[in-house]
Design a protein that fits this description.
Length: 477
Amino acid sequence: MADRNIPFMSASELAHAIRERDISPVEAVQSYLERIAAVGGKLNAYITVCAYAALDDARQLESELLAGKLRGPLHGVPVGIKDQIHTAGVRTTDASKIRADFVPEQDATVVARLKAAGAIIIGKTNMSEFALGDPISSWFGAARNPWDTRRNPGTSSTGSGAATAGFLCATSLGEDTGGSIRGPAANCGLVGIRPTWGRVSRAGVDGASWSVDTIGPISRTVADCALTLGAIAGHDPQDRYSRREPVPDYVGSLQDGIAGLRIGVVQELMGGHGLTLNEQSRDAVTAASDVLRSLGATVVPVSLPLAPATGPIVRTITSTERVSLNPEWLRERFADYHPNTRVAFAVGNLIPAQVYYKALKLRALIRRQVFQTFRDVDLLIQPTSTGPAGLLSDEPEVIGSKETAAAALREGSFRGLYSLSGCPALSIPCGFTDDGDGGLPLAMQIAGPQLGEPNVLRAAYAYEQATPWHNRRPPEL
């Protein structure tokens, strides 16, 4: 019988225990596999569990450790990988019937880097079909939120959020286009960072939108997030858009504190301006700004006038770029898409060129606003979402509702500033609802200028350590 407590350790704690030989990589994998078997069915977080391969890798890593060889900072740590990221010899489905049998011949760069850091791939996590952002569209069934299985775990990295919050992996990778790392982190009470565009290679990743897509970690703590990001970041010759700047020590600077940092609160995203914001979410972010102020930061209101429009702009750009990737599937396999994906792709295929061009021009204006604001402040904060996780619906035509579509665009505006500007943005829990449902996570977003991940992570870590939210567990899990 494996140690039942191992899955509840943070990735950082587990990595340390393995380095100290208090826990073996085999014990770690066995513990997670037993937990997946016990509660995984409730969450449907995985499309593929790599049980045999993970145990083989664990035995190899255990032998290396006994021989005095440490591969890297994640030696022996089980990691979940979103199923649009290629894994050699393991199917990569994009949660679609169309890709259900696709098995890549080589690992994506981020997977190769995780393995080089000693991580063990324990499984491929569920997602929205082709990373569209609809929680029920997976060919393998919807993933469920560990805080309330009736609710959305956040899209499109649905399974990465559910698996990490449900203690079915130590940390995970997601992919963020319009918010698909930050949304699951917010809904599931986790820490997720969308890095600077180009900071992490996308080679070997099935894309959604070439000019927006970004790979990043979804983790239970800020330290785990920093640890995972450090393992995957850096220039890659296989990705022509990857950044060449050296990767700093994200973990090493976490405890530097935030005294003297200037932090702006985006006023357009704190209520009004045509956006619906849950009152408890607004109050939680306001309280969080007080905590940051008490830790030595200067916190001031700032204005980004185009912020409320970023949801529609992101959706226009990504919808147009998404349908350009595999047009033959739209022509030849249209019926094999989930009904919601079918509608969304058909609409994306009809967007006029002049509308896409206008969205690109608006993106340039938004980038200018964001960059100019970062001349006056070091970081920006705001709610990650309009409110806590909503209820899942099994009705396939729900995407056809005008009200639902409008709500999705409003939701996208809470994360669109950083999708469009390419700046790093992190979601962190900042409270829980008190509406009688046992409490659902509320989240704050912390963003910085391009390549500003160290300050973003420092501020998140300082806030996390000063508050109790990261210590809470989902009920009955």
